[in-house]
Write a structure and sequence with these properties.
Helices cover 29% and strands 9% of the residues. The protein has helices spanning 42-45, 56-67, 73-87, and strands at 36-40, 99-103. The longest helix is centred in the C-terminal third of the chain and has 15 residues, at 73-87.
């Protein structure tokens, strides 16, 4: 199906303390053929355009809905990276921007 599901994250930032195990929250997800998993840090949803518009989770979700069901992991990553660069072309960055895309191709 062409459905997008948000998996809420949270907890402590990675790399902040040595023993992070007590702070981890495990999630189990069924990853079926044709599915994509897109992981993005809040630095992406907090992007601000040159006109002062904030991307937000709504904007990020619109992008992931647009690309997640039709492309390979590499193509999804490149498409989202282009959207990020086009939305906030300024070199000034207020937070880390991390994006990871995994796909399970159909057999």
């Amino acid at each position: 199906t062409k459905q997008t599901t948000k998996i809420k994250g949270g907890g402590i930032a990675l790399g902040m303390i040595k023993n992070i195990r007590p702070y981890l929250d495990e999630k189990k997800v069924r990853f079926k053929e044709g599915d994509s998993l897109i992981v993005a840090t809040d630095g992406i949803s907090e992007l601000v355009s040159k006109t002062g518009e904030r991307l937000g989770l709504t904007g990020l979700s619109a992008w992931t809905n647009q690309y997640a069901h039709t492309k390979s992991a590499q193509e999804i990553f490149e498409s989202l990276s282009k959207e990020i660069a086009d939305f906030a072309p300024s070199p000034k960055q207020h937070d880390d921007i991390t994006l990871m895309v995994l796909t399970r191709p159909p057999c």
